[in-house]
Amino acid sequence: MARMYYDADANLDLLAGKTIAIIGYGSQGHAHALNLKDSGMNVIVGLYPGSKSAIKAKESGLTVYAVEEAAKRADFIMVLLPDEVQKTVYKSEIEPHLTEGKVLAFAHGFNIHFAQVVPPSNIDVVMIAPKGPGHLVRRTYEQGEGVPALFAVFQDASGQARDRAMAYAKGIGGTRAGILETTFREETETDLFGEQVVLCGGLTALIKSGFETLVEAGYQPEVAYFECLHEVKLIVDLIVEGGLAKMRDSISNTAEYGDFTRGPRIVNDQTRAEMRKILYEIQTGQFAREFVLENQSGKPGFTAMRRREAEHPIEAVGKDLRAMFSWLKKA
Ligand code: NAD
Ligand code: MG
Ligand code: MG
Ligand code: MG
Ligand code: MG
Ligand code: MG
């Protein structure tokens, strides 16, 4: 098993007396900023003027500056902006303030690995990537626990980059749960693969196809929704709690037999070949190029796909049914 590092392996003193700037105050940003502050670190937040998040950050007792000012003041700069805006903000507001000895950090390797951000050689470049959404990073910290994280060093100018990254991971609560060392390449490629093939792309395609098949065959959309979407959570919760075995233990034998005999016909050799193709597109930078160009051209395809997906019948059925659930909950 890969080596995990815990609280005792990381030294928070390496960040004592340093100013840490959290750039962006969204899902990850608010969690990192508040956890570091509660860990006794000197935290400031960098946001664009007029950002709605600024009010929230100030209400939580944080000092907010324009991104440029925060980057100037900080010794450690964590970039928690949406991946597609990082390059522009970096170029105009962060890079001019990257003087020798500073640390530039990310929570996902995309912009460094695909060279959208090319930092100067006299600074440290690291990654601390919690393996969970920001609200969980915050909530677990408040409960005295943490979300496991990956960490990596891209560039070590100070000789302390790795220790500094581990210290940061400790400050956000990551070492309470355990942190695992990776590289920018491994994190970037596996993160993209996971979200495209399994978690987001694969799962939504599976749900929609199952729903469409039942509705086309004349079954009621509401029933199809329950069977193909709603129950996903019940199954996934069991898998996360105790692996595939726990889930299979708690479903009926009929369901379990159907799982073994029919599942491999849905994800078959052809599907696996497509998975390898998608991985290859990630590894060669083809996906990154497509995403970067899509954003540069004003997201025409992205916007059209968002609209089209929002109009899928499963969304209308879901909206009605979920309203019913919340009525049931209130009663
Ligand atoms: P987010 O969209 O939730 O938040 C982004 C923040 O940046 C917001 O506060 C927004 O107001 C601000 N912002 C947007 N444009 C800006 C601009 N031009 N100038 C200044 N501020 C701007 O983003 P997120 O989901 O927290 O993602 C941040 C990073 O963390 C990404 O690299 C992402 O890949 C990574 N990450 C996210 C998760 C997750 O679960 N959300 C998990 C691990 C890693
Ligand atoms: Mg989104
Ligand atoms: Mg991910
Ligand atoms: Mg991702
Ligand atoms: Mg059922
Ligand atoms: Mg069983």
Automatic annotation (TrEMBL):
Cofactor, free-text remark: Binds 2 magnesium ions per subunit.
Database matches in HAMAP family: IlvC (MF_00435)
Protein name: Ketol-acid reductoisomerase (NADP(+))
Cofactor: Mg(2+)
Family: Belongs to the ketol-acid reductoisomerase family.
Source taxonomy: Bacteria, Bacillati, Cyanobacteriota, Cyanophyceae, Leptolyngbyales
Source organism per UniProt: Stenomitos frigidus ULC18
Gene for this chain: ilvC
Entry keywords, A to Z: Amino-acid biosynthesis, Branched-chain amino acid biosynthesis, Isomerase, Magnesium, Metal-binding, NADP, Oxidoreductase
InterPro entries according to UniProt: 6-PGluconate_DH-like_C_sf, KARI, KARI_C, KARI_N, KARI_prok, NAD(P)-bd_dom_sf
Residue numbers binding Mg(2+) 1: 191, 195
Domain KARI C-terminal knotted: 183-328
Single GO molecular function: isomerase activity
Broad class of enzyme this protein falls into: oxidoreductase
Any single GO BP term: L-valine biosynthetic process
Residues involved in substrate binding: 252
Keyword Magnesium appears in the UniProt entry: yes
General function of this protein: Involved in the biosynthesis of branched-chain amino acids (BCAA). Catalyzes an alkyl-migration followed by a ketol-acid reduction of (S)-2-acetolactate (S2AL) to yield (R)-2,3-dihydroxy-isovalerate. In the isomerase reaction, S2AL is rearranged via a Mg-dependent methyl migration to produce 3-hydroxy-3-methyl-2-ketobutyrate (HMKB). In the reductase reaction, this 2-ketoacid undergoes a metal-dependent reduction by NADPH to yield (R)-2,3-dihydroxy-isovalerate.
Pathway recorded for this protein: Amino-acid biosynthesis; L-valine biosynthesis; L-valine from pyruvate: step 2/4; Amino-acid biosynthesis; L-isoleucine biosynthesis; L-isoleucine from 2-oxobutanoate: step 2/4
Ranges for domain KARI N-terminal Rossmann: 2-182
